[in-house]
Write a structure and sequence with these properties.
It is built from six helices and 27 strands. The protein is mostly beta strands and 588 residues long. Strands 15, 16, 17, 18, 20, 21, 23 and 27 form an eight-stranded antiparallel beta sheet that branches. Strands 1, 4, 5, 6, 9, 12 and 13 form a seven-stranded mixed beta sheet that branches. A hairpin with a 5-residue loop joins β17 and β18. The chain is globular, with a radius of gyration of 26 Å. Pfam families: DUF4842.
Length: 588
């Protein structure tokens, strides 16, 4: 009997660290935990030395590499010259080299997260981060500042960029999940005595421990980072060794290092948007009538404007008799090209969108995409069509106490949407973002005054009295966005009812206006009382990607060559072995 030894060669890209000039980590990443919140205050506190700032040499540079910046950053902003040119310094006696020194003092102010008094049930933390830089001569102007965090994806994720003004100051608004308690700051400049480009790096808190009797957890704070330097000034030009496209974003943060019109990719990580569909009635607050798991990416210019939005949306619950469609409204002053494709629950192309009923009038691009005008974008881009097509019947929302296993779980249709604006846009110029998320809404097959009803998240619209139009009389929303894959309540289980809710800290979070138990969605009552039914559908146990699938999803744009090569190598190896075995039927 012959013995077969099969050597399985795993594709290397699955396990490689990204060794490019980006500050990246491993591509396959675990989930991370959260911290609690606590009561609010409206005080400022000095936090001296929090996040010590240090100086890092990026790489060996030469003053002769300094070039005049390029003209166009791709979003209507013009620099000095069309083509980067190398500046030859005038020969002079070299100054005595001296090191760059840096000291910092960080102050923080507690931020009101209640949207002007109404708690809007946002889980993300939205704060401004201010950086002020001075040297021995005064304010440091035109210094590029980058703010990153590494919790969402496990690697540095750029959440904002900016350039210091004439006062040496820049304020960068950011929005991050409650997992993030501090952000990293990077400032690029040059040591004038050596001519070498340097990076000042440190961190700043955006949450800090609450103070006062009986307080626990953290409060949200806006940091002001005062950085005092010597022998540090702006580059005032472009060192192509560290900024290949001269767009003001150093290569170690620039995801488009050869394209001056683009700089960074903002990645949301995975979230779930869940709706209660009885609007304008309060409904049963089970948040399972329409639930979608999604993630987005935004390609941004060096001035923080958005050129392209990419999103993936998977329908996972329809605990309702109504049918609904999920749309995205964008209030922007430009046209956009929309691309959309659909996959069924098994990952095969799905062509059922065209035959699905539509509940938003006078729309363009539904199911097919195309070029949409600003008015059509505001009316709403179709993400998922009628829910009776994308998740058949009353799925993934069982009655309390009923047996529900992975065999009962139905993975609905997935939409893959790309929106590319003709001109980069500032999403904050008009209200396109609340809590860091876009303006998704639900259109229902029920009419009020002859018009199909639409449901929005809180924070976008107020009624004539100034009250948020999408909070009910008890201040509860018809829609909520939760980090990760949300384990929604069973049918009819009010998430606020302690006796019929698996979420033991939801009320604490809600009643504290979102500052206590920010991680409420991770705490499910694991040990119910005797004969107590289950009130939560554990979607996260059923909705999972294996490592290779996760890598393919993450790498589809950046590492397409490596992925393709890996698949070809594996396929060829298995094909060769099978051919050998089939050609020798006696082989054991």
């Amino acid at each position: 009997m012959k013995r077969w030894i099969i050597l399985l060669v795993l594709p290397l890209p699955l396990f490689l660290v990204d060794c490019s000039n980006k500050k990246k980590g491993m591509l396959l990443l675990p989930f991370l935990g959260l911290g609690d919140g606590a009561t609010q205050a409206n005080t400022a506190s000095a936090n001296n030395g929090n996040g010590t700032f240090t100086v890092v040499g990026l790489e060996t540079t030469d003053p002769g590499q300094v070039a005049t910046p390029e003209t166009n950053s791709g979003d209507g902003e013009t620099n000095n010259a069309e083509t980067p040119s190398v500046v030859t310094p005038t020969p002079a006696a070299p100054p005595t080299p001296a090191p760059t020194t840096v000291n910092n003092e960080t102050t923080t102010t507690v931020v009101d997260q209640t949207n002007g008094g109404d708690f809007n049930f946002e889980t993300n933390i939205t704060v401004p981060v201010t950086v002020v830089i001075v040297n021995e001569s005064g304010p440091v102007t035109n210094a590029p500042v980058t703010v990153t965090e590494s919790i969402t994806t496990g690697e540095p994720n750029v959440v904002g960029v900016g350039t210091t003004d004439g006062n040496g100051s820049v304020t960068i608004p950011i929005s991050v999940p409650p997992t993030v308690v501090s952000v990293d700051i990077s400032i690029i400049g040059v040591n004038p005595t050596t001519g070498e480009v340097e990076e000042i790096v440190g961190s700043a808190p955006i949450q800090q421990p609450a103070t006062g009797t009986g307080s626990e957890g953290t409060v949200v704070v806006a940091p002001v980072v005062n950085v005092d330097t010597t022998n540090f000034q702006p580059v005032n030009g472009c060192v192509q060794a560290v900024d290949s496209d001269c767009d003001g974003i150093a290569n170690n943060f620039d995801e488009f290092p050869d394209d001056p019109s683009l700089a960074t990719v903002a990645r949301s990580g995975r979230y779930t948007i869940a709706f209660e569909d009885m609007f304008p009635s309060a409904g049963d607050a089970d948040l399972n009538d329409h639930s979608t798991v999604f993630s987005t990416e935004m390609d941004k210019t060096p001035s923080n404007k958005v050129k392209t939005i990419r999103g993936t949306y998977t329908h996972v619950a329809k605990g309702a008799g109504y049918n609904h469609e999920l749309r995205l409204s964008l209030d922007v002053p430009t046209n956009a090209t929309v691309q959309v494709s659909y996959l069924d629950g098994q990952g095969n192309p799905w062509n059922g969108c065209a035959s699905a009923s539509k509940y938003t009038a006078n729309t363009a691009g539904d199911c097919t995409g195309g070029t949409l005008t600003a008015a059509q974008l505001k009316r709403g881009v179709l993400i998922l069509p009628s829910s009776d097509k994308t998740l058949f019947g009353k799925k993934n929302a069982p009655s309390a106490g009923s047996t529900f296993t992975i065999n009962d779980f139905v993975r609905g249709v997935t939409a893959q949407v790309t929106i590319t604006f003709e001109e980069p846009i500032d999403l904050n110029a008009t209200k396109n973002l609340v809590g860091g998320h876009l303006n998704y809404f639900l259109a229902i097959n029920q009419k009020t005054d002859g018009v199909f009803r639409q449901i929005y998240r809180p924070g976008y619209f107020k009624d004539a009295s100034g009250k948020d139009a999408f909070l009910d009389k008890n201040g509860f929303p018809w829609a909520i966005i939760v980090p990760g894959v949300f384990n929604h309540p069973t049918e009819g289980a009010d998430i606020r009812n302690q006796s019929t809710s698996g979420y033991i800290f939801f009320n604490s979070w809600m009643n504290s206006n979102g500052v206590a138990h920010k991680d409420w969605y991770l705490h499910i009552d694991q040990i119910p009382a005797a004969n107590r039914p289950s009130y939560v559908v554990r979607v996260s146990d059923f909705y999972s990607d294996n490592g290779f699938t996760a890598y393919l999803i993450k790498a589809v744009r950046k590492n397409a060559f490596e992925v393709s090569a890996s698949l070809i190598v594996v396929g060829a190896a298995l094909g060769f072995l099978m051919k050998r075995k089939m050609g020798n039927p006696k082989a054991a």
